[in-house]
Design goal:
This protein is 41% helix and 18% strand. The protein is α/β, with parallel strands linked by helices and 338 residues long. The protein has a 7-stranded parallel beta sheet, with helices on both faces. Strands 12-9-14 form a 3-stranded mixed beta sheet. Helix 1 (11-22) links the parallel strand 1 and strand 2. Helix 7 packs parallel to helix 9. The relative contact order is 0.14. It binds nicotinamide-adenine-dinucleotide and uridine-5'-diphosphate-4-deoxy-4-fluoro-alpha-D-galactose (UFG). Nicotinamide-adenine-dinucleotide binds at residues 6-7, 9-13, 30-36, 58-60, 80-84, 99, 103, 122, 124, 177, 179-180.
């Protein structure tokens, strides 16, 4: 029996595929390659020495997904496939609701049809909205989300809860990620954004490798120790490990379980700049500019529930995150095209 990984060619998906294969799981990947390079999966095969089927399929394609379930023995699903750029989601909201919400509904329909009722879903700290104080705990109310991308995550969480309430055979784990950065320590797989990066770490690594002139630090007047935004950065390999632990829960109990995946530590933008300069051995040019609309001052997790119930804890610190991000970018200045 295999784990179906939707969006397995992407940043978090490819790292999770490596951990799954190294932990003895068989996997099947579905990806429409809208936001990844198929070479990421070639490198997963090379790193692990293991082969697996890859279906170039959109999760909104009902017949395509049925073929995957006809051909393979799928036991459970880890569902990464989705669009994730906050700014873009405000420009093309219909595309976000269709891809993320309709896509997930379609996937669940096919899963139910084939009697596969175990799913781990990639949710986000964004579902806590802007008015909960950090550290964020799973029992806090959700809502108050400021953009269509975040609302797709919130809607999917609610849909999955309704599905579990309607049929007690479903087992669903909602993983609320904080800020994933870093890369596999081999430097062979990593984050490979198209165009101008939206997120902090890929922007920093592109400045460091000479592709961009300087980092714009969005806001120096937040209510934080150095005035810049504070986030809970988590190494992508630790995040990937969290999914392996979540699969245990799927096999042990039904219903919905929700876990934060973060370190519980908040670092400011300037903390990250300093840690990155140390890891790369070079100064990183930056300018403090206006705040980015929609950003909040502080966001970090309370990760205790994942530790108590999953036995999961992030092992890698900010130094490893910066060193591994830098190794990936410096070994692959043009991403998977190198
Ligand atoms: P990513 O864009 O690198 O990976 C997503 C993958 O899904 C891509 O390979 C893309 O081609 C594929 N995909 C998108 N729509 C699809 C569709 N309709 N059918 C099939 N494949 C499709 O993103 P990531 O950073 O690896 O994120 C994975 C998941 O985690 C996403 O759902 C994202 O919203 C969620 N998440 C990410 C972050 C983050 O900061 N990276 C934070 C919280 C949650
Ligand atoms: N930042 C900069 N300059 C940049 C990019 C980011 O100063 O060029 C700052 C931001 O203002 C913020 C911090 O760096 O203070 C982190 O920003 P990111 O864009 O890397 O991440 P966010 O916390 O804004 O968003 C991330 C994911 C979202 C998710 C959200 C909450 O990208 O998908 O976490 O989980 F919704």
């Amino acid at each position: 029996m295999a784990v179906l990984v939707t969006g397995g060619g992407g940043f978090i998906g490819s790292h999770t595929c490596v951990e799954l294969l190294q932990n003895g799981f068989d996997i099947v990947v579905v990806d429409n390659f809208s936001n990844c390079n198929p070479k990421s999966l070639e490198r997963v095969k090379e790193l692990t020495g293991k082969d697996f089927p890859v279906y170039p399929c959109d999760i909104r394609d009902l017949d395509g997904l049925c073929k995957v379930f006809d051909n393979e023995k799928i036991d459970s699903v880890i569902h990464f496939a989705g669009l994730k750029a906050v700014g873009e989601s405000t420009q093309i909201p219909m595309e976000y609701y269709d891809n993320n919400v309709v896509g997930t509904l379609n996937l669940c329909r096919v899963m139910a049809k084939y009697g596969c009722k175990k799913i781990v879903f990639s949710s986000s700290a964004t579902v806590y909205g802007y008015d909960n104080p950090s550290p964020l705990v799973e029992t806090m109310k959700t809502g108050g989300v400021t953009n269509p991308y975040g609302r797709t995550k919130l809607m999917i969480e609610e849909i999955l809860k309704d599905i579990a309430a309607s049929d007690d055979e479903w087992s669903i784990v909602l993983l609320r990620y904080f800020n994933p950065i870093g890369a596999h320590e081999s430097g062979r797989i990593g984050e490979n954004p198209n165009g101008i990066p939206n997120n902090l770490m890929p922007y920093i690594t592109q400045v460091a490798v000479g592709k961009r002139e300087f980092l714009s630090v969005f806001g120096g007047d937040y209510d934080t120790p150095d005035g810049t935004g504070v986030r809970d950065y988590i190494h992508v390999v630790d995040l990937a490990d969290g999914h392996i632990k979540a699969l245990d829960v799927l096999n042990k109990k039904t219903g919905v379980a929700i876990y934060n995946l973060g370190t519980g530590n908040g670092y400011s933008v300037l903390d990250i700049v300093k840690a990155f300069e140390k890891a790369s051995g070079n100064p990183l040019p930056y300018k403090i500019v206006d705040r980015r609309p929609g950003d909040i001052d502080v966001c970090y997790s309370n990760p205790e529930k994942a530790f108590k119930e999953l036995g999961w804890k992030a092992k890698r610190g900010i130094e490893d995150m910066c060193a591994d991000s830098w190794r990936w970018q410096s070994m692959n200045p043009n991403g998977y095209d190198d």
